[in-house]
Structure formats: C-alpha cells, structure tokens
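Hi again,

Forgot to attach this to my earlier email, sorry! This is the prediction with FE2/S2 (inorganic) cluster bound. I've pasted everything inline since the attachment limit keeps bouncing my files.
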Amino acid sequence: MSDSEGYIPLIDEEELEEGKMKAIRVEGKPVLFIKQNGKIYVIDDRCPHMGCKFSGGSLDGNAIICPCHEWRFSLESGEYEEDSNYVLITYPFKVVGGKIWIKLEEDF
Ligand code: FES
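Structure tokens for the complex follow:
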C-alpha cells in the first residue's frame, strides 16, 4: 500500500532509538533505518564495496562503518570517506503520523 507519491509506511518513528540501527526487508530489499545525532537516515543495507550488511557494523559520528573491511561512509553524503566513487544507496523518506514512510527506487 503506497500513497500517491509512492511512499509506503514501514515502521513507527518511536521504534528507532538514538545511535541504533534497525534492519528490515521490504519487497526483497534489505533496508536499514538509522537514528544518529537526532537525525534519521534510511539506506540500503548492502555495502557498495562487496555487499556486506551495514547492520552488522557500527556508527561513529556521522559515519557508518562496514563490518567487513571497515570502510567508513558519510551518512550525510553517502560517500566512502577515502573514495567518493563508492556511494551507499539512500532512500527518500518522510515521517507522517508517527510512521516512517519510504520510497523504494526502481531496481538497481
Ligand atoms: S564490503 Fe563493506 S567495506 Fe568491504
């Protein structure tokens, strides 16, 4: 069920705790919700390097660190800090009625 803009409601905003991640699958895609420094981020849970799950990694400042090779990606720009050719996938989202709605992009 999506709204007229293609957003679908997924989790309650209050399920997200500061400094924590929450991984779910949506239409076969691994989606990762993050709340860090009071901001929400919604990203694909697969590292653009070799596909490891970010959800097994950690958060540090405004970076997420992949568990496999410890690459650090900026949550703001999505870029790997040492090579901006590697960019994680972010999903557009909005918070309406206490729920976080996301828009899945077309397949990639
Ligand atoms: S798979 Fe993420 S850093 Fe290598």
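Residues 91 and 105 are 7 Å apart (CA to CA). The chain has one domain: 8-102.

That should be everything now.

G.
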